[in-house]
Amino acid sequence: MTDPIRPMPGIMDIALYQGGAAHVAGITDAVKLSSNENPFGPSAAAKEAFKRAAESLHRYPPTDHSSLREAIGEVHGLDHSRVICGVGSDEIIHLLCQAYAGPSDEVVFTEHGFLMYRISALAAGATPVSVRERDRTTDVDSILAACGPSTKLVFIANPNNPTGTMIGKGELVRLADGLPEHAILVLDGAYAEYVEGYDGGAGLATVRPNVFMTRTFSKIYGLGGLRIGWGYGPKPIIDVLNRIRGPFNLSVAQLAAAEAAMRDRAHVGWCRDENARLRAWLGEALAEKGIPSDCSTANFILARFADEAEATACDTFLQREGLIVRRVAGYGLPNCLRITIGDESACRRVAHAIGQFKGQS
Ligand SMILES: Cc1ncc(COP(=O)(O)O)c(C=O)c1O
């Protein structure tokens, strides 16, 4: 007999999201390079604000997030009435799917795109459509070819996770121009701060009625553990998302820490510079050891191995050395390992260990 209690269509097709591993059995001081976290942590001002928030834990948080939205608006030169804040950018992605896609609608993303696009599309009852990339890079022509009357949302992470590649403004404009007018282009800027001079798509989202940008405090701001993200776009879309957002979705501690983090531009700049320096060093060190990678624009490197067996063996070797990186077979890249840019000592340890692995294989 079939169970009379059944979830909505699509829900049972969702494969559970696996976060980056954090522990290796038997090793107490393993270095975690599996979740693209900021090895330097958040700004001291954010930590102070978080501690101060302990004094008002008995109070409900504001529902309109106005103070955080104003800080975001001031720093990025954006109209704060067009900003929405959520429990990580994951929540914003989820709200977009919930509000704009349902049964018989399609949600388009690239073949090595962030896994939450598929999960959120299925959760909304919509059909996920994965589109080929070209050399692990977003291919605008493939996306446009995949769009039709049923397309409601197109998600592009720029820079992309886990490839680290990105496309330029001209290609983004071509994509926005070519989409059906009933489809929203979502530019996921989770790693935008790592790209000097890139606005994450804010400029396009300011002037286009169908372009939306998502951002996060989990990466360069070093607040992944607190769960805060934001979105910016056309006012009508913000108004829709606010109707289905939980009124108290962000706590007093999240709001206070995020605002302080946003205003500490020196910390952001320092982290960006350090990441760029260490990323270049690690990329070259791996190339010298015969491990190629695409030129990354984010805070990780996608190391390519000869085949899946070599990637798996290297992952096992690194774990024994207390280094946790990310297998990305679930992203359609079984021969690759994604390595977060850690601090200098972590980068040197990874390069050294991969050298030892290659030497013995
Ligand atoms: C491309 C991309 N988008 C969004 C997110 C979600 O970030 P969060 O929910 O922590 O803001 C991530 C996290 O890894 C990501 O890689």
Automatic annotation (TrEMBL):
<keyword id="KW-0032">Aminotransferase</keyword>
<feature type="domain" description="Aminotransferase class I/classII large">
    <location>
        <begin position="29"/>
        <end position="354"/>
    </location>
</feature>
<feature type="modified residue" description="N6-(pyridoxal phosphate)lysine">
    <location>
        <position position="219"/>
    </location>
</feature>
<keyword id="KW-0663">Pyridoxal phosphate</keyword>
<dbReference type="GO" id="GO:0004400">
    <property type="term" value="F:histidinol-phosphate transaminase activity"/>
</dbReference>
<comment type="similarity">
    <text>Belongs to the class-II pyridoxal-phosphate-dependent aminotransferase family. Histidinol-phosphate aminotransferase subfamily.</text>
</comment>
<protein>
    <recommendedName>
        <fullName>Histidinol-phosphate aminotransferase</fullName>
        <ecNumber>2.6.1.9</ecNumber>
    </recommendedName>
</protein>
<dbReference type="GO" id="GO:0000105">
    <property type="term" value="P:L-histidine biosynthetic process"/>
</dbReference>
<dbReference type="GO" id="GO:0030170">
    <property type="term" value="F:pyridoxal phosphate binding"/>
</dbReference>
<comment type="subunit">
    <text>Homodimer.</text>
</comment>
<keyword id="KW-0808">Transferase</keyword>
<dbReference type="InterPro" id="IPR004839">
    <property type="entry name" value="Aminotransferase_I/II_large"/>
</dbReference>
<dbReference type="InterPro" id="IPR015422">
    <property type="entry name" value="PyrdxlP-dep_Trfase_small"/>
</dbReference>
<keyword id="KW-0368">Histidine biosynthesis</keyword>
<dbReference type="InterPro" id="IPR005861">
    <property type="entry name" value="HisP_aminotrans"/>
</dbReference>
<dbReference type="Pfam" id="PF00155">
    <property type="entry name" value="Aminotran_1_2"/>
</dbReference>
<dbReference type="InterPro" id="IPR015421">
    <property type="entry name" value="PyrdxlP-dep_Trfase_major"/>
</dbReference>
<comment type="pathway">
    <text>Amino-acid biosynthesis; L-histidine biosynthesis; L-histidine from 5-phospho-alpha-D-ribose 1-diphosphate: step 7/9.</text>
</comment>
<dbReference type="InterPro" id="IPR015424">
    <property type="entry name" value="PyrdxlP-dep_Trfase"/>
</dbReference>
<keyword id="KW-0028">Amino-acid biosynthesis</keyword>
<dbReference type="InterPro" id="IPR050106">
    <property type="entry name" value="HistidinolP_aminotransfase"/>
</dbReference>
